[in-house]
Design brief:
This protein is α/β, with parallel strands linked by helices and 497 residues long. 31% of the residues lie in helices and 19% in strands. The protein has a 7-stranded parallel sheet with strand order 4-3-2-1-5-8-9, with helices on both faces. Helix 7 (231-249) crosses helix 8, helix 8 (265-274) packs parallel to helix 9 and helix 15 (440-451) runs antiparallel to helix 16. It binds coenzyme A (COA).
Length: 497
């Protein structure tokens, strides 16, 4: 019945229900699930595990590529199935459990998880649960809309549960390029010299004996929850485009720019969308996630190809993408996240990295993860993999949050994800600060005058003036540096009345 999807006949006997397959997972195990920013996640097993947890204790360490869709992270967290979670999440219910301390969250650079598993720095995966389009005649697992960490999980796990998703088109076969580095210390260079190069397999090689169960599913990925562009994101996009035009005019790059990386979420998607109105042509992407904006640029012809680890689209764009799948076959490559985010490759290709900050400080340090310095939002994701190693590391943010009550430009960020050393350019809807070659004392006035909201500029100027009196390479008044957070808690606004 599923001959096209299970091409190795003896594996037919492994088809079972999700409830039956869930028995393979025991309390305390480490489970690696496919799924990366809502794309290609296992659909049936999270539900089966939640169901099982109603009658017995089941607390797992759950590793994925990145965030899951279908409310899986939230449902598993609420049921107590997830005791430990890594390396990324973006779910409101799970976020609450993390911030109350009920779930231990290990926030990691997304390129690092596979490396740590391979090195034995993390406990090995007991069971891998992976969504697939099909299993090939030689036992290869063809992933669906993401690769993420699936290849590492499937190769390391003692047992592999495959979810064959009938709603995924068979034509996805051939989009993936599965290449995994060998263990250190005898590793050579990753032979990737251009974003479009292929160097691996189109499926994940797994010995058929380790495929312990096959579940048949047919539910689609959750659509992207990125919001449409607005006035502020349009303004941010205009500043970024003008800056990149300057880079071309200065002869630092051609009109094809450098391979682009764009982070997750509404703002990065909107900024990339803004490139539709840019003069740049024959651009390429070497990114982690392709959102709607990447497909728009492929369709407009401005982007010649895109490499990533997952494709996360709105419902309408997903439908269009699947309908025209063949037109993208030669122009999209899906890679393991270890390769899409690999520092060695990012540095070699000279990327333009575009990521979003929750907030940044007057010296250029960026907080992307911790609201108010303490509460986890999503995680660092791949932003650190890219920011440190890109040719140009750009961070964007709206200048204020929560209707103006929070300034996204602060004296000192209370949590640092990206240090001043990894940040070249900062952009808000008000303007852009090019920090390259500038000392902290030179950066601060530029960031305040170009990026901060006008309402907050007097406060920031006053802080800087006071800080300068104390001297230093990076002047601060430590007793006042975090006072803005106290004021927000107390008065409901960071603004001095
Ligand atoms: N303090 C508190 N909350 C803030 C804030 C600040 N300084 N700045 C923004 N927020 C809130 C917003 O109000 C919004 O809250 P809501 O969901 O209650 O409306 C939320 O953060 C998201 O902000 P938004 O402006 O919609 O931006 P976004 O969807 O583009 O997401 C990040 C921004 C930083 C959360 C997101 O990009 C992220 O998780 N980044 C880290 C991982 C990463 O960069 N990965 C990319 C590598 S490829």
């Amino acid at each position: 019945m599923y001959e096209q999807r299970i091409r190795r006949p003896e594996l037919m006997s492994k088809v079972m229900t999700a409830a039956q397959a869930a028995r393979l997972i025991k309390n305390g195990m480490t489970v690696g699930m496919s799924g990366f920013t809502r794309a290609g996640d296992a659909k049936a097993m999270p539900l089966a595990l939640v169901e099982r947890s109603r009658n017995e204790a089941l607390a797992l360490t759950l590793l994925t590529g990145a965030s899951l869709g279908n409310d899986s992270d939230g449902m598993m967290a609420n049921a107590g199935v997830v005791a430990r979670r890594m390396p990324f999440q973006a779910d409101a219910a799970l976020r609450r459990k993390i911030n109350t301390g009920e779930v231990m969250f290990i926030d990691q650079h997304l390129s690092e998880t596979a490396e740590q598993l391979r090195s034995g720095d993390l406990k090995e995966i007991d069971v891998a649960v992976v969504e697939a389009v099909a299993i090939t005649a030689d036992g290869g697992i063809i992933p669906s809309m993401s690769v993420g960490n699936t290849a590492t999980f499937a190769q390391q796990a003692r047992q592999v549960i495959v979810e064959i998703n009938l709603s995924t088109p068979l034509a996805l076969e051939g989009f993936h390029d599965i290449y995994l580095p060998v263990a250190r210390p005898h590793r050579g260079a990753i032979p990737l010299l251009t974003p479009w190069q292929r160097m691996g397999w189109t499926s994940i090689p797994v010995h058929p004996d380790r495929i312990a169960a096959i579940i048949i599913t047919d539910s689609p990925d959750s659509p992207s929850n990125a919001l449409p562009p607005d006035e502020e994101t349009d303004a941010i996009a205009r500043h970024v485009i003008r800056f990149l035009e300057g880079e071309v005019q200065a002869g630092r790059m051609g009109p094809e720019l450098r391979p682009l990386q764009a982070g997750i979420g509404t703002i990065a998607n909107a900024v990339l969308h803004g490139l539709i109105d840019s003069p740049f042509r024959n651009m390429t992407m070497y990114s982690e996630v392709l959102q709607d904006s990447a497909i728009e640029l492929l369709d407009s012809g401005q982007l010649s190809m895109a490499s990533a680890s997952s494709i996360t689209l709105s419902a309408a764009m997903h439908e269009k993408f699947i309908r025209n799948l063949e037109s993208y076959r030669e122009r999209i490559v899906l890679r393991p996240q270890e390769i899409s985010n690999h520092p060695e490759v990012v540095r070699r290709l000279g990327l333009i990295a575009l990521n979003t900050a929750l907030e940044f400080d007057i010296y250029g340090n960026v907080n992307s993860t911790h609201v108010g310095g303490t509460h986890m939002m999503n995680g660092i994701g791949g932003s650190g993999d890219f920011a440190r190693n890109a040719q140009l590391s750009i961070f964007v943010s709206k200048s204020v949050a929560k209707g103006g009550a929070i300034s996204s430009v602060v004296p000192m960020v209370p949590h640092v994800d990206h240090t001043e050393h990894d940040v070249d350019v900062l952009v808000s809807e008000w303007g852009l600060a090019d920090l390259r070659g500038l000392a902290p004392r030179e950066r601060a006035p530029l960031i305040i005058e170009n990026c901060a909201h006008p309402d907050y500029r007097p406060q920031l100027r006053a802080y800087l003036a006071e800080a300068l009196k104390g001297g230093g390479q990076t002047p601060h008044v430590l007793e006042q540096a975090f006072a803005w957070y106290g004021r927000y808690k107390r008065d409901g606004s960071m603004l001095v009345k």
